[in-house]
Amino acid sequence: MFHPVSACRMGLNPDRDVVNVWLRMPGNGELSLVYTSIFPTLRSGNTNAPAIMFGEKVAGIVLLDYSAGS
To answer: Where does 1-70 have alpha helices with state H?
Structure first.
């Protein structure tokens, strides 16, 4: 109730989901969305721990992109 998420959900279906699993917005080039609103489902508890884990995952994706030269 006080920690809304999932407004811009992440997933594999570009017709339904705003970003893909690599956090890219289809049709917008290199634009990525990095925010807890991409969580596919609403968590039943506080979103602090999932947000921290999400930040670590995003850091890994950014490092992969950087090392690949994209």
So the answer is: 48-68
Answer whether 9's CB lies under 8 Å from 18's CB. yes
Does 3 participate in catalysis according to the annotation? yes
Length of the chain, in residues: 70
Upper half-sphere CA count for residue 66 (Cβ side, 13 Å) = 6
> Among the listed ranges 10-14, 15-19, 30-34, which one has the minimum average pLDDT value?
30-34
pTM: 0.62
- pLDDT averaged over every residue in the chain: 79
Q: Where are the domains of the chain?
A: 1-70
Listed in sequence order, the residues at least 6 apart from 35 whose beta carbon sits closer than 8 Å to its beta carbon are 8
- Catalytic residue, chosen from 3, 11, 49, 59, is 3
- Whether pLDDT at 54 is above 60: yes
Q: Is there a contact between 20 and 30 (Cβ–Cβ < 8 Å)?
A: no
